[in-house]
Amino acid sequence: MGNGLMQDLVKGVFDVKYIPTDEERTMVEKMASIGITQEDISKVVGGGIERHTLAKHFRKELDTAKIKANAAIGLTLYNKALNGDTASLIWYSKAQMGWREKSQIEIEHSGDLSVSINLTPVKALKIKDK
């Protein structure tokens, strides 16, 4: 007996207002993982339920969906970086290691000293293979 039929039977006998199905739990988790609001999720679950009903019956999915999605995507990106994907390496070094593309020089000075700094771009050295 599927959850939908069971839900209909229980509603008829016990006047239960809402029993979530496994399919609805999966749908709520997927929607919450990509940032769809609880207000919008409640409009499509069970043919439309109240927001407090969504929060009551899907608390675990709502609280953990984004964490699981971020972990899965982060792990995929991490593995791509380990396998040498240049874009993933660059993103990881910036986001996780604090690397930046431009140098920043901070000079603190008080007094009458005048400082002039000329920066010249340096060309990359070509190393010949032996």
- Judged by helices, strands and strand pairing, the structural class is mainly alpha
- Note the beta-strand portion: under 5%
What's the tally of helices? 6
| DSSP summary, beta strand count | 0
Work out the radius of gyration. Answer: 28 Å
Average pLDDT figure: 84
* Large-scale geometry: elongated
Q: Could you give a short account of the major beta sheet?
A: none
Fraction of helical residues: 55-70%
H/E order of the elements?
HHHHHH
Distance between the termini: 73 Å
* Parts with pLDDT < 50 across at least 5 consecutive residues: none
Map the helices and strands.
Blueprint: H1 3-14, H2 22-33, H3 38-44, H4 51-57, H5 59-82, H6 86-95
3D architecture notes:
The chain is mainly alpha-helical. It is built from six helices and no strands. The longest helix is centred in the middle third of the chain and has 24 residues, at 59-82. The model has no long low-confidence stretch (mean pLDDT 84).
Index terms:
single chain, 130 residues, mainly alpha, 6 helices, elongated
Explain briefly what this protein structure is.
The protein is mostly helical and 130 residues long. Helix content is 55%, strand content 0%.
